[in-house]
Amino acid sequence: MKEKNRTLLRAADELARTVDALAIISFLNKDNEIHLETPVVWVRDIQPEILRDHTMVALVDYCSNHIIDAVVQYKILTKMQSGTVVAVFPYALLIYDIEDANDQFNIEQYGDIADLDALHSVLSLALEIAREGREGRAIGTAFIIGEIEELKRWSHQGVLNPYEGHPESVRDVRVKENWESVKEFAQLDGVFLIDKDGIIGASGRYLDADGRDVQLQSGLGGRHLATAAITKVAPAIGITVSESGGVVRVFVAGTAVAQIRTDIRLSV
Ligand SMILES: Nc1ncnc2c1ncn2[C@@H]1O[C@H](COP(=O)(O)OP(=O)(O)OP(=O)(O)O)[C@@H](O)[C@H]1O
């Protein structure tokens, strides 16, 4: 198995160099000893071996779905917007243009609502929270990004705001050192309000926007409804982490514009 995988990875490396790919996205077991010229992103936590007895059609279907899910995360984590990657599966090599994942989700579209760096940071942080949880248990939360005073009009403080009175430097979500405290406060009831530049205004905030005419996929509850609702009444982006299921969703203008699986994990 190891030798077969290495043959595939070497072939992927050659192909990647031919098409000038940004990276190889590998769905094979991580191999720390192989040295390739192209950077490799290892995707963990899926089980492609379950495909062994499937038909060619099922295999292609599986590979294309997984590459889209992986590329959506790859773009969030690397901030790459265009270029080619080569995906390696146990039975297939695939050349994929990362712009093709834009149909799924394209963060660049929302640069008028918030700073793109801030959006990238909040999404990366949301993915981490969804994957890691806290002290062994899953946590759910939401981040609402927009004009703070406007967002405050549609929400109220549920618990004391832990960010009150702190300097911007410790409230900046673009600074990774600040993520630890966000993860801590994500365990509180309520959501985070973040300004357009990525400065956290409040957490523990309860959303009051009326969700009655918001259409949501069935199974989603109060947190998702309230997040969708505030993005309908205010120019804002809502990013939810679901406690039940670990999915990260992005809401704009009252609808879910992206649904990101977090059982696929990338080590970039
Ligand atoms: N309007 C709201 N504003 C802020 N937080 C809310 C609001 N409604 C619910 N929540 C929070 O979401 C938590 C989960 O509620 P619920 O299960 O109804 O939501 P959900 O959308 O199904 O989310 P999850 O998938 O994370 O369970 C509640 O315990 C509460 O902390």
TrEMBL record:
<keyword id="KW-0464">Manganese</keyword>
<feature type="domain" description="DAC">
    <location>
        <begin position="104"/>
        <end position="263"/>
    </location>
</feature>
<dbReference type="Pfam" id="PF21754">
    <property type="entry name" value="DacZ_A"/>
</dbReference>
<keyword id="KW-0547">Nucleotide-binding</keyword>
<dbReference type="InterPro" id="IPR050338">
    <property type="entry name" value="DisA"/>
</dbReference>
<protein>
    <recommendedName>
        <fullName>Diadenylate cyclase</fullName>
        <ecNumber>2.7.7.85</ecNumber>
    </recommendedName>
</protein>
<dbReference type="InterPro" id="IPR014499">
    <property type="entry name" value="DAC_DacZ"/>
</dbReference>
<dbReference type="InterPro" id="IPR003390">
    <property type="entry name" value="DNA_integrity_scan_DisA_N"/>
</dbReference>
<keyword id="KW-0067">ATP-binding</keyword>
<dbReference type="Pfam" id="PF02457">
    <property type="entry name" value="DAC"/>
</dbReference>
<keyword id="KW-0548">Nucleotidyltransferase</keyword>
<comment type="function">
    <text>Diadenylate cyclase that catalyzes the condensation of 2 ATP molecules into cyclic di-AMP (c-di-AMP). c-di-AMP is a second messenger for intracellular signal transduction involved in the control of important regulatory processes such as osmoregulation.</text>
</comment>
<dbReference type="InterPro" id="IPR036888">
    <property type="entry name" value="DNA_integrity_DisA_N_sf"/>
</dbReference>
<comment type="similarity">
    <text>Belongs to the adenylate cyclase family. DacZ subfamily.</text>
</comment>
<dbReference type="InterPro" id="IPR048546">
    <property type="entry name" value="DacZ_A"/>
</dbReference>
<keyword id="KW-0808">Transferase</keyword>
